[in-house]
Amino acid sequence: MRTVLVALVVGVGISLIANMATTVYLHRALSHRALTLRAPAAHAFRFVLWISTGIRPRQWVAVHRKHHAFTDVEGDPHSPVLHGWVTVQMKNLVMYRREAHNPETIERYAKDLPADRLDRVLYDRALVGLGIGVALLCLVFGWQVGLLAAFVHVNMYLGGSAAVNAIGHHFGRRPYDNNAGNLQWLAFLTAGEGLHNNHHAKPTSARLSHRWYEIDPGWWLIKALTSMRLAKVRVMSGAANGFAAARDRASNAAHVAKARASAAAEAASSAASAAATHVAEAAATAKSAAASAVNSPAPSNSNA
């Protein structure tokens, strides 16, 4: 029993750390440029994510930026409006991996994050990072606690990430006019990400809590980093935030229109191809029938 309890505490602790790195580094700093990090902090976050999640930052950023470009419309990599929140909760990892391995998505939405030397040598090798992370757990806590803690962490981290995309776009309070919801209990588990309605209202804000009763643990870490001069928050006025939101909506509309036009063109092309095939088959059938009629012997006249 003690082994299980220790593994549970360690696994939950690792997930909380991984979620902190995800929300501060991958989400707020890289994806939305809501803050800039000095090299020591950025490298620390990259290493923590490498050994705890195996995530490649440019892939995560590209998928997330595409989600904002197509939020809950055709083209969104993981929309519960399109697929149902239960499906997204259960298949979020599959949906993420499919989009993360799409070269066009990476090229379009993560142009500013090309792979550097450390990526090529270390951080693009996800299994190596995860193997080091599990080995460290086993070395520090023993193999039983280490493996159990890794199991707890995997389920909590993946479940929390899925919940933000699934539950966070279906349930919760909506003080702003968007499909995402605010769920404080989910924000505690994901270092603030559960305040998703706030985030979609002001995606370039480093702080996800907008009211006195909302708690954003990720903001606590950002404040600590700024006090140590390891981070600088991007300050935006209300007008600038409004402009950014309007720009995102316009970009979203343009992407949707283009996607629908592409789908319509593809459908028209398929219909034309099918029609051409049908005509060709009809012509071949007619030609075959004509040839059969020419080559068949004339009927004999029995009364001659």
Key terms:
304 residues, two-stranded antiparallel ribbon, mainly alpha, 2% strand
Count of alpha/pi helices: 13
What gyration radius follows from the Cα positions, in whole Å? 27 Å
* Helical proportion, percent range: 55-70%
In terms of structural class, how would the helical and strand content be classed? mainly alpha
Mean pLDDT: 87
Shape: elongated
Strand fraction band?
under 5%
Domain count: 1
Let me know the number of strands: 2
Q: H/E series, N to C?
A: HEHHHHHHHHHHHEH
Main sheet: which strands, in order across? 1-2
- Provide the low-confidence segments as ranges: none
From the N-terminal CA to the C-terminal CA, the straight-line distance is 106 Å
Mind summarizing the main beta sheet?
2 strands, antiparallel
Protein described:
With 304 residues, the chain is an all-alpha fold. The protein has one domain. It is built from 13 helices and 2 strands, in the order H-E-H-H-H-H-H-H-H-H-H-H-H-E-H. Strands 1-2 form a two-stranded antiparallel sheet. The radius of gyration is 27 Å and the shape is elongated. The mean pLDDT is 87.
